Amino acid sequence: MKRIILLAALCCALPLSAQWMRRTTPNDTLQSTRVLPDGKVLFQIYAPEASTVSVSGDLPWDKPVKFEKAENGVWKGVCEGLDKGLFRYNFTVDGVRVQDPKAPLSAEQSSLLTVGEGYVKDVPHGAVAQRFYWSKTLGEMRRMHVWTPAGYEKSKDKLPVLYLVHGGGDNDASWPGVGAAGWILDNLLAEGKIVPMVVVMPNGTINVPNEVPPFAEDMVTSIIPFIEANYNVKTDAANRAMAGLSMGGMETIEVCFNHPEMFTYVWVLSASFAPGQDPAVESARLKVKENAAKMNKQFKKMVFTQGGPTDIAYQNSKNTRVQLDKDGLKYEYMENAQAGHSWTTWRADLETLAPTLFR
Question: How many CB atoms lie within 10 A of CB 232?
């Protein structure tokens, strides 16, 4: 890779880009802000080693919020006097101002450092747009990011689509942000290495205990229909691809194994069947053996990747592939970058695999 991107994050911030086998904490299910029935607002932050916590921003100055620390390391404070509207706020932990690590957009608050040449080059650049859509599955407005290639606005050509999903703890801004997806795609297109395509980066994070199935339903019932109704894209399986890393890889499996007729290209990056579950049971649930022949015929290119033996999904992925072999499902496997479970690996995966699409 030509650059390294470092993330500056607090020790109390969101978990790493994948939630595999790790120690749980109260932070996992913590809701940092809650509007109470009486109109007051409860602020919460997990900071077990902190001595003092406060909150400031567009809040009433005459009624400072007093915080108390619970035994589980969660600090709680109640704010009074807020009217209806939109308010900025931030926590101060032991004198250090911090952004709310549990806010819906917290994954976008990490600082990025470029070392070396970087990805932004003097080439024609496409556009990365934020799009909002109504999720029929979740009954709420949700957001996605969409990359369109340079010249798309003036072109009448229908393009193929890649649906590209982030990992756990991140959101739809992660691939175009730390993932550098737009810049990578700009460079590949300028070099003639990829065909023009639309790349959709949806939000795979849903605040429910098991977010994989509802996201999979949302993909089919809302996300894909929204793109095909609003963008000049091809709508057949031969021109539709899906890829995801870590948790997003699990979501890719869930979508594509349940709806193989909808896709021709499938990438599972640093992922497997659900960790902690028997691969045979998961395979049976997804009817892999039953549909193996159908998927082998349908998927022109199905790829599993890993970031080498240090990838925390390495063994789970191996166990999954052993089961898929038993079930007769064909796929390719590669260890493209020996960078473990990291964005260095996944950016390398995108650079390597994007040129193989829609050929």
Answer: 14
Task: Characterize the bridge pairing of strands 198-202 and 265-269.
Answer: unpaired
DSSP secondary-structure letter at 326? Answer: H
**Burial of residue 132, with CB atoms counted within 10 A of its CB: 0-12 exposed, 13-18 middle, 19 or more buried:** exposed
Report the C-alpha gap between 212 and 280 in whole angstroms: 18
Pairwise CA distance, residues 107 & 144, whole Å = 14
Q: What angle do CA 331, 275, 217 make, to 5 degrees?
A: 70
The three-class DSSP label of residue 129 is strand
DSSP-derived letter for residue 238 is G
- 192's CB contacts (< 8 A; 6+ apart) are none
Rounded-to-integer distance, Cα 133 and Cα 169, Å: 21
What is d(CA 202, CA 212) in angstroms, rounded to the nearest whole number? Answer: 13
Q: State pTM to two decimals.
A: 0.82
- List the beta bridge partners of residue 45: 75
pLDDT at residue number 176: 95
Q: Clarify whether residues 8 and 36 are in a common domain.
A: yes
The last residue of a domain, from among 56, 84, 108: 108
Using alpha carbons, select from 297, 307, 293, 301 the residue that is nearest to residue 344: 307
165-180 pLDDT per residue, tens: 999 989 999 999 999 9
Strand order in the sheet with 67-69: 33-35, 41-46, 74-79, 67-69
The backbone torsions φ and ψ at residue 340, rounded to the nearest 5 degrees and listed phi first, read: 70, -155
Residues 184 and 204 in one domain: yes
